[in-house]
Amino acid sequence: MLERESPWGPLAVADAHVHFFSHGFFTALVAQKPGLTLEAAGAQLGWQMPPAEPTELGGMWAAELDRNLVQAAALIASVPGDEPSIAAAAQAFPERFFAFAMVNPSAFHPEAFSGVHAVCLFPAMHRYFVHDEAALRVFEWAQLNRRAVFVHCGVLSVGVRGKLGLPSLFDMRYSNPIDLHAVALRFPSVPIIVPHFGAGYFREALMLADLCPNVYLDTSSSNHWMRYEEVHHQETRGALRHVFRRALDVAGAKRLLFGTDSSFFPRGWHQAIFEEQARALYELGLSHADARSIFGENLLRILGTPPNLT
After folding, report:
1. CATH of the domain at 136
2. pLDDT tens-digit profile of 21-51?
3. Is residue 3 part of a domain?
4. What is the pTM of this model?
5. DSSP classification of residue 3
6. How many domains does the chain have?
């Protein structure tokens, strides 16, 4: 087992939030802007464009995890229709990856998702309420097939779209975690993952987690939404300590999932996020056992050690 050095000593890490920016993802993006090519997009972003074969990109991420002593990661297919890419990568490296696939419920075809561990809903992006009938069918599928559902709430900002000059016509009316309350109660066996602590709806995410034991909060990204909180004036680690303290008080260590929101090469795995979060939690006095839970064991517990697609 790979273990990464941490303030508590060696720690097995499983990252709950890594975007799999595949060739299919970029092909879908550049098609939205006349005249934009993959080569031009790569030059404009300063990023390394992914290989056409998703298993090759999976190999790049596996090597990146090795370099950073990370045991496993949830790879997120970041555009609807890219589930074959993420499933292929997870199948090629079954001991390293969980496959998370974005879906627009209005175009959900269950047979296409047999190779994924979780489906990802972005209500603000695709403009629906998570309690709409189409979305409920996704939860029904997850319950029947013992899968998880990832639901992005709060502020949604897709940086790559802005850098490429693509509009982000999202609608925050559909972003409130409270919309998940009745859904989570209706499907109590389905693990529901809310990323970025609710991304600006922190209070609402805590309320949801308090009332629904199947709701998990993902800690990923630099959490810029904290500027909307009363702690915005604090230095980053102080603000993170405040957020983690409240999340631990309400949800407990067993329902927090460490994530980085890593996404592109050559940056690769965003180790600075790990360092910031680990230091903030250590300064709160988190035990080694609880650190093991947050930084890896919780993800493995709710999804099963890869592969677990029965």
Report:
1. 3.20.20.140
2. 999 999 999 999 999 999 999 999 999 999 9
3. no
4. 0.95
5. -
6. 1
